[in-house]
Design goal:
With about 375 residues, this protein is of the alpha/beta class. It is built from 11 helices and 14 strands. The chain folds into 2 domains: about 100 residues, no CATH class; about 260 residues, Rossmann fold (3-Layer(aba) Sandwich), CATH 3.40.50.
Length: about 375
């Protein structure tokens, strides 16, 4: 609220907004009210100067120091310049409020190209500066209006490298720092050639951590995979989201068009996706970058539903399980884990996965 003139109605409205924690900035121009029922903004102005944090709870101290130079009663600078400064004060308050809000969703990526896709999908400008945690972890904040009428505060961060070890360690640190209600990992992954297409988006219904094994006598190896599944409540939300395919597809297609995201009709690496709606899939997670389709297919000996392979989901689930925080993995298929693997679909698949993640936060996840 920008308070200017008026009488009792203006001061009452300012008081109600202040009690709700909404930003209020009063000007000092002596306009008054037609009914002469009070001083309106002038009353608020005096109270603001003595207790600024009641009206701008995050930046009041800084704003009150600038206020004498923004007088309308005795302007020291041109009126348009005063107006620009007042707008900046309100913008700074809203930005500080967003930064101070508790994190609802922690959005994680591993690679720079995935981070760029996440920031784009969640409306963060490419040039927006990063904030840093005490240990130097870069992160960005975004607030998204959900279809439930609430604001979801999303914190976006990246590991900067691939691998479950770093994923687990950094996720654990971020969980302690931000205490999110949900963690979503987005990025690229390899898909089995006969089960997926380039650009498909998958949501993990389970994660098979395939590296665990026992080395036995005689050179034998006994696989001991760990299997993770999303929290039951998350499973329910995903099932409901996937059941709403018509409306979700329309929204995803619209978001893709807004980004100019268009897949090529064909690729020498293999089949290209013809669908924008995500599908549930079982993901194999380990430390190996797969370039051998036979090794990829062997993962199905551990779990017959494995269709996708990547390198961070097991670490994410390990950290989140230890901290009792629900987690979700969303991947875009960028290659088939064979010798035709290249970087052509890295950006396209990253952006497709990020768009689904943002849509899920708005329309798919329960409160």
């Amino acid at each position: 609220m920008l308070a200017l003139g008026g009488g009792k109605g203006v001061s009452d409205r300012a008081y109600k907004m202040m009690k709700l924690g909404l930003p209020v900035y009063p000007m000092d121009l002596k306009i008054g009210a037609n009914s002469e029922d009070g001083e309106g903004a002038l009353v608020v102005h005096r109270k603001f100067m003595s207790a600024p944090l009641s009206y701008l709870s995050h930046t009041g101290a800084e704003a009150v120091s600038k206020t004498p130079a923004l007088s309308l009663e005795e302007p020291a600078v041109p009126i348009p310049e005063i107006a620009a400064h007042v707008v900046a004060i309100l913008e700074n308050e809203l930005a500080a409020e967003a930064h101070a809000a508790p994190t609802d969703v922690l959005v994680l990526t591993a690679l720079p190209i995935e981070l760029n896709a996440a920031r784009m999908a969640f409306g963060i400008d490419e040039e927006a500066p990063a904030a840093k945690t005490d240990i130097g972890q870069n992160h960005w904040r975004a607030q998204i209006q959900t279809n439930r009428g609430t604001l979801a505060t999303c914190t976006i961060a990246t590991f900067g490298t691939a691998g479950n070890v770093d994923a687990a360690a950094i996720t654990a640190a971020l969980l302690m720092e931000f205490k999110p209600k949900l963690v979503i990992m987005i990025g690229i992954a390899a898909g089995m050639r006969d089960k997926t297409a380039l650009g498909d988006v998958v949501i993990a219904d389970r994660v098979v951590a395939y590296e665990g094994a026992a080395l036995l006598e005689g050179g034998r190896t006994e696989s001991r995979p760990e299997i993770y599944r999303p929290d039951f409540s998350v499973q329910q939300d995903i099932a409901n989201y996937l059941a709403s395919a018509r409306s979700a597809t329309a929204r995803i297609d619209s978001a893709r068009a807004a980004q100019g995201l268009v897949f090529p009709e064909a690729s020498g690496a293999g089949a290209v996706s013809k669908r924008s709606m995500p599908q549930a899939a079982t993901i194999g997670s380990g430390e190996k970058l797969l370039r051998d389709p036979e090794k990829f297919r062997q993962l199905r000996d551990l779990h017959g539903k494995v269709e996708v392979a990547e390198m961070e989901a097991a670490g994410i689930f390990t950290a989140c399980t230890q901290h009792s925080v629900p987690s979700l993995i969303i991947r875009g298929i960028s290659d088939f884990g064979d010798t035709k693997k290249d970087n052509t679909f890295h950006d396209l698949a990253s952006r497709a996965a990020a768009i689904v993640a943002a849509d899920l936060v708005v329309f798919g996840m329960g409160s």
